[in-house]
């Protein structure tokens, strides 16, 4: 993921800050904000950032109610969050990501996807046991890319797979101009 100095990046479901810290380490000139609903986890993230003197802000909040202005980020990232969300919450969270992204901004999601083989179907069982069969079903059925496109994003690409192919890496772009017939977060 290419980022330019001065860009603003939001990490939705930042947890202990691992992804936010990695982004800041690789791109020290970007402004990184993490958001997570767990205060104890955010305290850990803040300590980790202070320990390495990384200027990262961590905010308390939810993916489906982002406390940020419209068009305030150049990139929105999320790692292993969406498979925890109920289908209707996934939709609202994607609309919120769309809302806070600037036109031309990119969404990057790493999350459990549709298994492509019998081995992968077996490999996702621990995710399903830990996170619940209902929560993960939507992702395993391959619905996340459809939801991303239905939200109004363009240029959706699966850019790779990691963790034995269980986790899909998706990239999509908020259009610079939205047409009247395009489904957006406001429709």
Q: What do these coordinates show?
A:
- The longest helix has 14 residues, at 87-100.
- The two termini are 29 Å apart.
- This protein has helices at 18-26, 39-51, 87-100, 118-123, 125-131, 133-140, 144-151; strands spanning 8-12, 31-36, 56-60, 73-79, 101-112, 154-162, 167-173.
- It has a seven-stranded mixed beta sheet, sandwiched between helices.
- The protein is 35% helix and 27% strand.
- With 187 residues, it is α/β, with parallel strands linked by helices.
List the SSEs and their pairings:
Blueprint: E1 8-12, H1 18-26, E2 31-36, H2 39-51, E3 56-60, E4 73-79, H3 87-100, E5 101-112, H4 118-123, H5 125-131, H6 133-140, H7 144-151, E6 154-162, E7 167-173
Parallel strand pairs: 1-2, 1-4, 2-3, 4-5
Antiparallel strand pairs: 5-7, 6-7
Helix pairs in contact: 3-7, 5-6
Structural descriptors:
187 residues; alpha/beta; Rossmann fold; 7 helices; 35% helix; 27% strand; globular; disordered C terminus
Characterize this entry briefly:
The chain has a single domain, classed as Rossmann fold (3-Layer(aba) Sandwich). 35% of the residues lie in helices and 27% in strands.
Mean pLDDT: 88
Order of helices and strands: EHEHEEHEHHHHEE
- For the largest sheet, list the strands in their spatial order: 3-2-1-4-5-7-6
Assigned CATH architecture: 3-Layer(aba) Sandwich
CATH superfamily: Vaccinia Virus protein VP39
Sheet of most strands? 7 strands, mixed
CATH topology name? Rossmann fold
Q: What structural category do the secondary elements indicate?
A: alpha/beta
Number of helices, where a helix is a run of at least 4 consecutive DSSP H or I residues: 7
Proportion of helical residues: 25-40%
Give the C-level CATH assignment.
Alpha Beta
Distance between the termini: 29 Å
Unreliable segments of 5+ consecutive residues: 180-187
Radius of gyration: 16 Å
Tally of structural domains: 1
> What is the percentage of strand-forming residues?
25-35%
Report the principal-axis shape: globular
